[in-house]
Amino acid sequence: MFIGKIVKSDSHINYVCQIYGPREVEVEPSPADYAFGRFVRVAVRSEQADDPHSDLNFALGISYEPKTYAVGVIYDTILLNPAFGSLGPRLSNETQVELFSPDYISEKAVLIYVMVLGMMDLRMTPNGEAEFLSTMHGVPLLSLELGSEIETMTEAEVRAFHFFSDQNEPDKEAYLHMGYLPHIIAQRNSLLPMVSLRIIDQLERIFPQNLPLLSIVKRNFAWKLKVETTG
Amino acid sequence: MIEPSTAARPRFRPVGITKGPGETAHEYTFVSRDDEQVLKNGEYVYYELDDIDEMTHGHTYPPDRAPHPGDGYPQGSLRVDDIIHERPQGSPPLRADDMTHGLRTDDMTDEQPQGYPAWGADISSQRADNVIHGQGTFARRVLGRIIKRVPLQLYPDTFLAEPEISPSQVAAMVGYDSRTNELFELHVSIMGYYEEATGSFINPWIPPPSGKQIFLADDEMLARILSRKQRGQPGSATIGSLLTRAPDAVPVVLAVKDFVSTHLAIIASTGAGKSYLASVIVEGLMQPHNKACVLIIDPHGEYGTLDQLANHDEFSEQGDGRGSGYRAQVKIYKPDQVKVRISTLNMGDMRHLLPEMTEKQQYLLSRALRKVNETKKGSPWSVTDLKAAVKAVSKQKGDEDSEGADDSSTVHALTWRIDQRFVDSFTFDDMQHLDLPEIFKPGQCTVVQLNDIDERDQQVVVATLLRRLNKARMETERGKVHAGEFYLPYPVFVLLEEAHHFAPSGTEVVSTAILKQVLAEGRKFGIGVGLISQRPGKLDADVLSQCQTQCIMRIVNEIDQKSVAAAIEGVGRDLLDNLPALSKGQVIVAGAAVNTPVICRVRSRITRHGGESKDAPDMWQKYFGPEAQESRHRSEAPLNGNKGFQLLR
Fold first, then answer.
1. Long-range CB contacts (within 8 A, 24+) of B628-637
2. Among A137, A173, A209, A216, which would you mutate to test the B interface (most chain B Cβ atoms within 10 Å of its Cβ)?
3. Which of A178, B3, B463, B564 satisfies CB 3.0 to 4.6 Å to B511 for a cystine?
4. Nearest to B72 by CA among B85, B89, B56, B90
C-alpha cells in the first residue's frame, strides 16, 4: 500500500517522506504501516513507451512492463506540529478550525526518514504475480524524485530483495544477501544500528534456514551496541 | 616485441608481488593471496634479476654487435644508454626493470611483456652463449625458499562464531563476494641464482626492489637445479621427490660421488624410516648406472630383504656384446658366518674383549702379542700360539729378572681368560674371517648381520674390519700391494647402522678411533661411510660433523635436535624447525650431495622392506586362532612324542 510521498532529501540515500494524512488517500496508513525498520519501495521513474496502450495500462495499474524500484528502510519518524508552542487560547475551537480553514490541519504531519538500501527490478505477470528480475544492494545510481510515492513491501518482496543469486554468476545458487549492511554502518545516525538489528529480526523470521548465518551478524551487532557501549 | 619462442611457451602467472626486505639481510617479503594454497612453507619461488651488471660490462653483447673502437664509441667508456639506444632489432629485449639506474628508454619499455617469460630460457639461452661466465639457463632467476607466512588480512573473529557457517558466507551476505579473502605476507630466504658451471647458488646480496613479480618455481626448473645430478645419470641416486610438490614431480637425486667421498649421515628417531631410506640409497647405488661396492653393517638384521636386488630387472643390464652385462649381487653374512681372525686383533681390541686385566696381565699380553706377530710375520696365528707366547714371554721375563719374581699365577689367570674368551667362540676364529676381496666387489652389496653377537664383540668386528679395509685401501692406493688379501683397487662405501654403538659420545670404544680415522682420511683413500643413528645425541659429535651429506628425518627429542643443529652447519635453522613436523618417510637432505637443502619424500623401495615394527596385537590374536590352538593342543597332549610312555616306564 502507498503510505506517503517524498518531500525532501538529506542526501542521495536519505529521503524524508510525508505520510498521507486523513482524507488524503482512501485508506489512511496506520502507524504499523510506517513502523521503524519497515521495508518500503519507491518506483524510479523511467522512460515511458510511446505505445498509448501501455500508457492506459500504466494508468490502470496493470502494466506488464518491468519496473525499477528503490528499496529502503524506515529508520526515523518525526511528528510535525507547527502549532506546537502556540499554547495560548484560541477564538475558534478545533471543530470550527477544521470546518473553516482545513489547510491548517494539514500542517500537522508525520514525517518518516527512509534510507535507500538498493534497487530491484520486477514485472507483473498477467496472472497478478510479481516476477523479480534483478536485485542490487548498495547505493543506487539514480536519485528519487520529489513527490514519488512510498509503498510498503510485502513479505514476498522482502524475501525476493534478500534472496537471489549473484548477477555475474547466474549459475551459483541463490543465497541470503545483506549487502547494504556496510553502508548502513557507515552512516552516522544513532538509530541505524538499531534498525539493522530490527532488519535482522525480520529476516530471521523470513529465512529460518539461515538462522546461524544471521546470528553471527546479529550477535556481532548486539555485542557492539549493547555490551560494548554499556560496558 | 615478444619473440615467437616466448609466445609459444606457456606463460606462468606470478604468485605475488615483492613487498620489501625481510627481517635479516638475505630475506625478502612478498604479498600474495595464495588462492591455490601453493605457497607452502619450504616452497621455492623466484624473481628475475635485472641484467644491469652484465650490460654495463658489455657481457650480453652479441659478438658481432660488440662495439668496435672504430664505431665512434670511445673505447673503454661504453655507457649503458649507448647500448640501449644502439640495440638492434632482434637482439634480446631489455626489461623494463633494467632501467632502474635512471636510464630513459621510452622506445624500449613499451615492448616489454609483463611478468617475464616463465622459463626465461629464450632470453637466457641466447645470452648463455654470449655471457662470458657461461651461465646457464636459470642464471637470472633468483631462487628463494619460503620460511614464514604472516597473515595480513583475515576474517574478523566474530565471523568465525558459528562452526557450520564459513566466514566467506558471512562476507558474501554483506556483499563481499570475492572468492578469496585472505592476504598473506610471505618471508623468503634468498638462495641466489643458479650457476650451472659451479653448481652453486650465487646470492645477489640485495633483496629485490618492491613490486617485483614473484613466480613459483616450476617442477622442471627445480628438478634441474636442486639436485646436482639428474635422475638416471651415472653417479646419481634418486631417493625420492620434493615434498612440497606432487609425488615424483621433482626428483631429489643425490650425487653419489659427493656422499661417498665425504660421507653420509642418516639421523632419525626410531620408526621414522632410517633403514628404509638407507635401503633406498643402497638400491640407487646398486643400479646399473652406479654398480657400487657397498658393505652394510647391520646389527639388527634388517637388510636381509635387499637380497631381492639380484632378481629385479632394475638392477641388471644387458651386455653390449663386449662385456657380460651386469646383475647386482647381494651377499648376506648371517651372524654365525661373521668371523674375526684372532690374529687381526690388536692390543686395544684385547683390552676391550678382556676387560679389567691387571697391569701385569696387560703387560704380559702386549709383549706376547708383539712376540707372536714377530714370529709369525704376518701369517695367521691361533689361540694356542698366543698362549704359548704368553708363557714364553713370562719365562723370558723371569730369566731377565734377577729377583725371580713368580709370574705363574698371572700367566695362569691370563691364559685362562684367553681360553675362556676365544676358545669355542662363535665370532673369533683361528683362521676364518671376512675376506676383504670377497666382501668388497663392485656391483655387490654385502650385508654383515650382527644381530646375535654381543655388543662388545660387534664393536671389535667393526673395528677390525675397518682397520683392515683402511689398510688395504691405503696400501693399494700407495701402490704397495698388487695382489692378495690387501689388494682392493676400487673405492668402497660402508653403511654403518646404529652408528652410536660404534662411536658413542663421551666414551671411547674400540671402534671409535678407526672410525674417526676413516672419516677423516677416507676421502683420500676412497672409503665412504654412511652413518645411521637414531640417537644423534649419543653419537660422537666429531664423527657426526665429518659427514658432509646429512639426511635428517623426524626427530622429536629435543636433545637430539640440538645435537643435530650443533653438528650440522649445512642445514639452516628454518629447516631444522620442521624436524618434529616431518612424518614417516620425509627427510631433510642437506650437504655435499645436493645443491641446496631440500625436504624430500622418500620414494618407495623396489625391494621389500625388512625393518617394520612387529604387529604385536595381531600376533597375539593369531596365538588364539583355531589352527594355532589345535596344533598347540596336539603338541601339549600327554602322549605326544611317546613322552607319556616314557613317563610310565
1. none
2. A216
3. B463
4. B85
CA atoms of B612 and B95, how far apart (whole Å): 56
- Cβ–Cβ below 8 Å for A179 and B175: yes
Provide the strand spans (E) within chain A.
2-9, 14-19, 39-43, 67-80, 109-124, 130-137, 149-152, 163-164, 175-176
Q: How far apart are CA B530 and CA B251, in angstroms?
A: 21
Å between B179 CA and nearest CA of chain A: 12
User: Which of A180, A212, A216 faces B159 most closely, judged by CB atoms?
Assistant: A216
**Is pLDDT above 50 for B499?**
yes
CA atoms within 13 A on the CB side of A50: 0
Residues of B engaging A, defined by a Cβ cutoff of 8 Å: 158-159, 161-162, 164-165, 169-170, 172-175, 177
**ipTM attached to this prediction:** 0.78
The answer, yes or no, to whether residue A16 has pLDDT greater than 90, is yes
Distance between CA atoms of residues A228 and B321, nearest Å: 89
Question: Is B173 in Cβ contact with A217 (below 8 Å)?
Answer: yes
Q: Which residue from B429, B488, B492, B487 is spatially nearest to B461, judged by alpha carbons?
A: B429
Q: What is the pLDDT of residues B65-74, one digit of tens each?
A: 444 444 433 4
| E-state strands within B515-631 | 527-533, 549-552, 586-591, 598-602
Q: Tell me which residue of B224, B210, B220, B187 sits closest to B43, measured CA to CA.
A: B187
Q: Identify whether the C-beta of residue B339 lies closer than 8 Å to the C-beta of residue B434.
A: yes
- Which residues, 6 or more positions from A165, have their beta carbon under 8 angstroms from its beta carbon? A171, A172, A173, A174, A175
Mean pLDDT is lowest, of B259-263, B372-376, B482-486, B564-568, for: B564-568
Three cell numbers at B136?
646457464
- Beta partners for residue B235, in sequence order: none
Q: Which of B115, B126, B109 is nearest to B62 (CA)?
A: B126
Domains along chain B?
4-225 (no CATH), 236-243+249-338+434-602 (3.40.50.300), 342-428 (no CATH)
Nearest to B177 among A166, A180, A215 (CB): A166
Cβ atoms B431, B410 nearer than 8 A:
no
Sign of CA dihedral B178, B183, B189, B193: positive
DSSP B386: H
SS3 call for B35:
coil
Dihedral (CA of B433, B436, B439, B445) sign: positive
CA angle B279, B282, B283 (to 5 degrees): 85
Give the three-class secondary structure for A42.
strand
Write the CA distances from A159 to A134, A149, A150, A192, integer angstroms. Answer: 13, 21, 19, 21
pTM of the model: 0.73
The residue length of chain B stands at 649
pLDDT tens-digit profile of A56-65? 666 666 667 7
- Please give the span between the terminal C-alpha atoms of chain A, in angstroms, as a whole number: 42
Give pLDDT, residue B560: 84
Q: Pick from B343, B350, B243, B204: which is nearest to B578 by CA? A: B243
Task: Give chain B positions within 8 Å (CB) of A175.
Answer: 169, 172-173
Give tens-digit pLDDT for B190-237: 988 888 888 788 888 888 999 999 999 989 889 888 888 888 888 999
For residue A146, give the 3-state DSSP assignment: coil
> What is the C-alpha to C-alpha distance for residues A80 and A19, in angstroms, rounded to an integer?
11
Pick from A178, A215, A219: CB nearest B174:
A178
Distance from CA of B176 to the nearest CA of A (A): 8
Pairing of strands A163-164, A175-176: antiparallel
Say how far apart CA B221 and CA A162 lie, in whole Å: 50
DSSP B605: P
β-pair type (B586-591, B598-602): antiparallel
